[in-house]
Every structure is written in structure tokens, then in C-alpha cells.
Amino acid sequence: MGGEIGQIGKPIADTTVLVTGGSRGIGAAIAERFASVGMKVVIHYQQSHEAANEVARDCLEYGAKVMTVCADLRSKEQIERMKEKLETFDMLPDILVNNAGISHYGLLADVTEEEWDNVMSVNLKGTFLCTQAFMPHMISQRYGRIINISSVWGISGASCEVLYSATKGGINAFTKALAKELAPSGVSVNAVAPGAVETSMLDHLAEDELQMLSDEIPAGRLAKPDEISSLVYFLALPDSGYITGQVISPNGGWVT
């Protein structure tokens, strides 16, 4: 990533990334990827305290400065408290990875209003509130990276995942629109929309269903979390500043 970040000349060791939902899966892989270059890493979680600490321990092995923070991303008040804590420790993010999200599987006819509101609040509202809270710091220094973790279903849609697909489609539109707002301030905004990835989000599928899923993918397998984190890292590079407003889908050729 080089010795310094962007136009502000900030050393790598003084550059901070905040990964929401960083206690497992793709989020954990992203946190470790940034820690591996010596960046300061903030791992957000809501309930998985011990899992977040385990990821933090893995990050510390790289010699990175690491902090874990707990917040319900449906709450603006809790996000503001998280921001105040990071500001106190001089760890406001230069790079924000909006990764936190929950899935929902089932027919739209069976979705309750409460389920709709909850998934929308975590996946879409949480991305909005975190971005709104942390982008002023990036704008003030005229440098920043916002990377939203979407899904291939936000591009193509999925039967029995209408609610989840709707949230990810919203994130894609949010990404494209915000990129136009923030480009004059030196802040890029992109989305990574993975296909099927080997994480606990697929735990509801039986072994034979996972095999059928793999067989549908031209690459013949599911993605590894590290393959997604590598793309996120690339988009965070200073040299990637001209890439903005893009929805990039690493999906093994599943959806083109």
C-alpha cells in the first residue's frame, strides 16, 4: 500500500480502517487483511464479543493497533457514542468498510413487517448512519475510502430472498449516488457484491444444497473470505482513487 496515504501524506501506521460486523466471516478477513500491512484496525460488533476479541488477537499478531467497539447500527445514538470513543483514541476511520448485515430466507408472502423493518434497519439504515457519521472526517481531510459490502443478489435478485436482495440493491444505489457527492472531496465510494462465500451466512444450506450451488458457479466452487478481502483492500489503496461509484461483483462467473 506504500508508505503514505493519499494527498494527506499519512503514514500507514497512522491510517485507520473501521470494519463493521468484523467479528466473523468476510468482516474478519477484511480486518486481518488491513492489519497485515500495519494499519490501525477498528473491529465493530453488536453481540459477538468473544468472536470480535478473537479477531482482534489475530490482528495484533501483525503488530497492528487494534480496537473493538460495540454498537447497534440501527441506533444513531449508539453510532454517535462509537464515534466519540474512536475520536478519543485518535482512531476516526480514513477507510470505512460497511460490512455488517443480516440475511433473510423465505417467501415474500411470509415476511412480517417486523422482519422487513429489522433487515432494512441493519443492512441499509446501518450503512447510511455509519457513513453519515464518519464521512465528515474524510471530507475535512479531503481523503477517504467508503467500501460497502453488498451482494450478487443486489444485482440480479434471488427468489426467496426478496427482502435481502432489496437491501443490497439499495446499497448499490446508495453507493453510486454518494460517490458523485463525495468525489469532489477526494473520497471514493464503492461496493463489493460477492457471490456465494464460505461463511456462516450459508449455514442454513445442507451439504447437498451447497454442492448444487457450487455446481451452478462456472468457477466450480464458493469464494473464500480472503478473496473478497483482497478486493476490498485494493479499493482502499491510494492508487485506486479514480475508481468510484462502482459495484464490483466477485462471483466466479455466476452472474455477469
Automatic annotation (TrEMBL):
PROSITE patterns: ADH_SHORT. SMART domains: PKS_KR. This is SDR family oxidoreductase. Belongs to the short-chain dehydrogenases/reductases (SDR) family. Pfam families: adh_short. PANTHER family: 3-OXOACYL-(ACYL-CARRIER-PROTEIN) REDUCTASE, 3-OXOACYL-[ACYL-CARRIER-PROTEIN] REDUCTASE FABG. Residues 15-195 form the Ketoreductase domain. NCBIfam families: EF_P_mod_YmfI, PRK07231.1, PRK12826.1-2. It comes from Paenibacillus lacisoli.
